[in-house]
Design a protein that fits this description.
By secondary structure, the chain is mainly α. It is 81% helix and 0% strand. Helix 4 crosses helix 5 and helix 8 runs antiparallel to helix 9. The termini are far apart.
Length: 244
């Protein structure tokens, strides 16, 4: 038991002493965490911005969806490390070497959710919006997309967690945020503390991001909370009446 406590103490001590190197910018745990967040969130944002219009096009022109889906599935089958190395001659050791492939993976994961979410909007909802004088763009913005938000954010949650995890792989080409902590300072130096800290922070970042997206969904779809609350109230009322 004492050995375990000594191991945990060593990890905590390493985290405290190596959190930041003021004299050496870019080194330390905190700069690696910031780099990880920058790479992951940039890729997620770009992937989402590409998935939304492409998904809208696939819903509008249904003939596009099968070839587009096949193309993104083929793209997803390419190993991430291969894409990182393919990007090196064009982007060098810059953030774009990681952001571009990760944004494509986000697009691949999110696109089917965008299409499915928009397709699940009931026809009578669209017809009601049209009868109220909504044009195509206004109907899309204020009716169809809000109804599809739960399905879209469900895909975004999966894509975000996957992207945050895959950022670490970019450390094999000299970038990668917490992956550098795991590979360069942990594995290559055979030191457990940086590896454990890198893993814990990666998981923590993924959980926080997932929680924020879930909160965003709840804020954007207040009617779903009202519906669940109404269902519970009706269920309670019915059971009380039947018991009486």
């Amino acid at each position: 038991m004492g050995a375990v406590w000594d191991w945990l103490y060593g990890i905590v001590e390493h985290a405290v002493t190596h959190w930041h190197y003021p004299q050496e910018p870019g080194r330390g745990i905190w700069p690696r965490l910031l780099e990880h967040m920058r790479l992951a969130y940039s890729a997620i944002a770009i992937g989402a911005l590409l998935a939304l219009p492409l998904g809208l096009a696939c819903v509008r022109w249904k003939i596009l969806y099968p070839p587009v889906l096949t193309g993104v599935n083929v793209l997803y089958s390419i190993p991430a490390i291969a894409l990182f190395f393919l990007m090196l001659p064009y982007t060098g050791f810059s953030d774009w070497t990681a952001i571009v492939p990760l944004a494509l993976y986000t697009l691949v994961i999110l696109l089917p959710n965008v299409v499915d979410g928009l397709r699940q909007v009931p026809d009578h909802v669209r017809q009601a919006a049209t009868a109220m004088g909504f044009g195509p763009l206004r109907r899309l913005t204020f009716v169809e997309v809000p109804v599809a938000v739960p399905v879209i954010i469900a895909g975004l949650r999966v894509a975000s967690v996957a992207t945050i995890n895959m950022v670490s792989i970019a450390s094999l080409v000299g970038i990668g945020g917490l992956g550098q902590l795991i590979l360069s300072e942990g594995f290559r130096r055979q030191h457990d503390a940086p590896i454990v800290i890198g893993i814990v922070l990666t998981v923590f970042l993924a959980l926080v991001t997932d929680a924020l997206l879930l909160l965003t969904q709840r804020l954007l779809t207040p009617w779903t909370r009202d519906g669940r609350r109404s269902g519970r109230v009706r269920g309670t009322t019915d059971s009380t009446q039947s018991g009486g």
